[in-house]
Amino acid sequence: MTSESDYFLRQTRRQLLTSGGTGVGLAALHSLLAKNGYSAESDSRSSSGQTGGLPGLPHFTPKAKNVIYLFQNGGPTHVDLFDYKPRLRELHGQPIPDSFVGGKRFSTMTGNASGKLMLANVEPFHRRGESGATVSDFLPYTAAIADKLCFVKSMHTDAVNHAPAISFLLSGSQIPGRPTMGAWLTYGLGSETQNLPSFVVMTSVSKGTSCGQIFYDFYWGNGFLPSRYQGVKFRSGGDPVLYLSNPRGISREMRRDWLDSISRINSLKSDSHRDPEIETRIRQYEMAYRMQSSVPELTDLSGETKATLDLYGPQVLEKGTFANHCLLARRLVERGTRFVQVMHAGWDQHNSLTTELYTQCRDTDQPSAALVQDLAQRGLLEDTLVIWGGEFGRTPFLQGDITNQPRWGRDHHPYAFSVWMAGGGTKPGLTYGESDELGMNVAQDPVHVHDLQATILHLLGIDHKQLTYRFQGREFRLTDVHGEVVHALES
Fold first, then answer.
1. Half-sphere exposure (Cβ direction) of 398: Cα atoms closer than 13 Å
2. CA-based torsion, 304, 309, 315, 320: positive or negative
3. Average pLDDT in the 144-167 region?
4. Distance separating alpha carbons of residues 215 and 41, to the nearest angstrom
5. CA distance readout (Å), 86 to 98, 119, 125, 245, 399
6. If you average pLDDT over residues 344-350, what whole number do you get?
7. What's the gap between Cα 145 and its chain centre?
8. What are the φ and ψ backbone dihedral angles of 311, each rounded to 5 degrees?
9. pTM assigned to the model
10. What is 53-242+315-489's CATH number?
11. How far is CA 30 from each of CA 11, 187, 280, 458, 471, rounded to the nearest angstrom?
12. Which residues contact 10 (CB under 8 A, 6 or more apart)?
């Protein structure tokens, strides 16, 4: 006899009629849960130590096991950091040719781009390392590791404003409500740790910036997946996670007794209702208990060598900084966290290219490069995919007054921008794709957001077309109904 048959045989007439108010779908719930990976069988620990995940995943041998996404909120200016365009300097101060902007949609701050003046790169570019990748003097530490990086200079997206563009890149939809990349990966691949969350988020912003963005919770949301797959946000001050510390007068033993009692009650309710959110609550309580020990150990940097701390820069011991979060990201993947999303806001230089962009690069350049070097030194880079990039780029033309250099800026630009990746099976020293002579449009080997998502999943051993979840009558996936793997990025 199946478990759902036994369940319905034990129901009273009143219980059956009551449950009917929530839809006849309860009868098929167990089979749907099994199909989508929520049956008890999917929670068993594998011989490799992995817990959860879907049967049959990974679909093929992965090149990466973990991901650290260094997400730069606001749209880093590709034409000032990575995508060198000599033509911009030749046309500096002249109107942009109409052929480059005709019919294109920009933010309301630009509106019609016709007649906007071209703006040359603020700092010089140089070719770096044996690969010859062009990196600006804004980023000297990134420039020094250029041969370890895989640059994609032909990214393009559909959105022109921050929140829709970030949601699109992380969840595949401009409208909030879809599962984000970290949620998809923990749902599909399960967890490698029982003592820390498999999906962790940390947020920061440069001090004194005037262009920080809001960190919306849906940037690390679980969408329609059960809430156990949502990202756990670490706070910058106090306990990294709320309520880790026991209240005064409550011992660890007392907390354990309470959790055991609550778990028994929740288990009874779970047996009768078969609601996966009840199982999520049980798991959250248990994870919180284990994190009372694991998180303080994780965030205690006293065991790191001076050489390592110096590598990440002067802000590494300051809680809430990007440097501190980069080091914690390394420690998280070391301990089995599947997906670490380090988000740093302030790249929205509408009128601060010659001022705040320097601060932004100073706060993020050294820690980003240090993370790649640190992972490589420890033998972790091979299995860890590091991604650096924002939701879009910045316009090659000026936002502001050409005669007022301290207030130069650039607007949002979705039509061409750059990201870099390192480790996790990507090809070091590669520069893939090109934008046109002005950095306005993709000219060669375009990589759409859905292509990038498909490639990330591929590196983790997942066929993006096969990782799906049925919701409201259709099968959903991270890449929606689009996306092609860019095999040229693989090593």
1. 25
2. negative
3. 98
4. 36
5. 19, 11, 10, 56, 20
6. 96
7. 22
8. -60, -40
9. 0.86
10. 3.40.720.10
11. 16, 17, 16, 30, 15
12. none
